[in-house]
Amino acid sequence: MKFSMGNGQHIEFKTDVKGLDEFAPVRPSKFFIPQWFKDINDSIPLAPQPEVQGNRFGKEGEISKKFSHGTVKRCPAIVDIMKEGYIIPMWCDFLVQRDKKLLEWNNKGFPYGIEFHVNEQIYNWNLKKTDFPEGVKFINPWRIHTPPGYSVMFLPPYYQFEHRFTVLPGIVETDAYHQVNFPTIWHTNKDAIIDRGTPFIQVIPFKREDWSHSVSQMDELDKEEENKQKWELNTKFKNSYRSITARFKDGRHNKRRRFKVRGN
Q1: Could you read off the pLDDT of 178-226 as tens digits, one per residue?
Q2: How many CB atoms lie within 10 A of CB 130?
Q3: What are the pLDDT digits (tens) for 41-61?
Q4: Would you give the DSSP letter of residue 73?
Q5: Are 29 and 142 in a shared domain?
Q6: Are residues 96 and 150 located together in one domain of the fold?
Q7: How far is CA 226 from CA 77, 239, 247, in A?
Q8: Which of 1, 94, 239, 258 is the most buried (most CB within 10 A)?
Q9: What is the pTM of this model?
């Protein structure tokens, strides 16, 4: 399974399990948008403002939705992280049963199962009362390959609101090392089934680069640009952020801002 990363780069997910690429394939994250997000409206109709405009015409239909407050569905930061990278879905059904000290699992004989990090390996971890006291490591059937200089950030798909377990985030240099397993904290003490196809881990490739940084006071140019962006955001009901970023991408932004490294 090979996906384009732009600029001719590709990330590859390879498996030795026959048919896995067909019945539980890795796919771009945009195909795993959670149902709660799909169902939510993107707007909250504005309350009447008699002192400004009143409601003399009594028109509160579809058109009023355009002139409205946005819900989380209009938040570009949330939309973009949901769609970034790729999702490895759970590759088979897992039945997990446990008590305070014992966890048992069954995956119908699928060749990749669960191993454990004993309590000493996560000593002083801030576990909750219902957390299983050992790390539960899911053995990944996918080998991940990125081009030279590219690593992968692994994240739990945050907005799926999975409460039974949390896959621990991490970064791996997948241009050199390809077998990556997923340590997990298991939260629930009830029996649980993770269905095949459940969004399990988000995979975000990135280029390794050295960065410097600076810490400073805003100058007048900073303040001027921030004020312009504030008004640009506040003078449209929808898509103002996208209009700013689109202009930046095609070179129509103010290029006077220069980055000066003042410290490391």
Answers
A1: 999 999 999 999 999 999 999 999 999 999 999 999 999 999 998 898 8
A2: 12
A3: 887 766 555 555 555 555 555
A4: G
A5: yes
A6: yes
A7: 18, 18, 15
A8: 94
A9: 0.83
